[in-house]
Amino acid sequence: MIPIQYESFVKENFKRFIGAKGLSDDSLQRYFDGCFKDIGRIVPLAKVWICLKCLGAGPNNLAIDSNYGWGDKPAKCKECGNHTYEVGTFQARSSYVGNTFEHACHYLLVTKFRIMLRMSGRQSRLYDLLVKNNVVIETKGGPRYVMNPDGTKSKIDRIGMERSDTEKKAFENASKWRKHFPNGYFYILTNAIPRHLREHHDEKITAIYNVTKERDMTKFVDEIKSL
Ligand SMILES: [Zn+2]
Ligand 1 mean position to 150 CA, how many Å? Predict the structure, then answer.
């Protein structure tokens, strides 16, 4: 993995959007979007597709938008009519995106809300941010759009907790963690909550909050400070 100075661009986006404009749904959204945009400049997050049959005929036979290109793949290759494949998928870069989201949550909570917490780093793979031994936060977020090298944008179909594999992972982590802290508090911060998880609470998950909603953040911070 490329070493990335997450803190430096997170800080810049915080100054630009939240420091300058105060807290609102809009400034929160822009702050996280800005952070994702910056990591996309360092690590290209674009979708790429290619016709493997044409590629097999030699790279000289490749023509942009015809048998390879950026963004969503066409069903059929324009040159030979075979299937096209998405390569170098967005998911392959998901750890950079995940780290960006984690750093952005951390910086926001420490700087704006004065919550003392630390990143779990290698200490635990079950959560990302530690408030107290028995109060932890898992962060799950990603960008709705990624920029392609030609300037076009591609939509990411499911982000944050909308992804069922992400939901599954977060819930598994909560279960494992709870064995050690049966009466603890396990929160999930995300930038996308699907309908079936809205207002979700259960014996493992204390609550799931949307970091791009001012109301959610205020509620979350009040809760954390009361613990
Ligand atoms: Zn082809």
Answer: 21
Taking the centre of ligand 1 as the mean of its atom positions, its distance from the CA of residue 88, in whole angstroms, is 18
Tokens of 96: 């950079």
Domain range summary for the chain, segments of one domain joined by +: 6-42+92-226, 48-87
Which residues have a beta carbon within 5 Å of ligand 1, which is an ion? 51, 53-54, 67, 77, 79-80, 82
Q: Element (H or E) spanning 36, and its range?
A: helix 25-42
Contact, 218 vs 226, CB < 8 A?
no
pLDDT per residue, tens digit, the chain (227 aa), is 678 999 999 999 999 999 988 999 999 999 999 999 999 988 888 888 999 999 999 888 899 999 999 888 899 999 999 999 988 666 667 889 999 999 999 999 999 999 999 998 777 789 999 999 999 999 999 999 988 888 888 888 899 999 999 999 999 999 999 999 999 999 999 999 999 999 999 999 999 999 999 999 999 999 999 99
The Å distance, Cα 155 to ligand 1 centre, comes to: 24
**Distance between CA 38 and CA 52 in Å, rounded?**
31
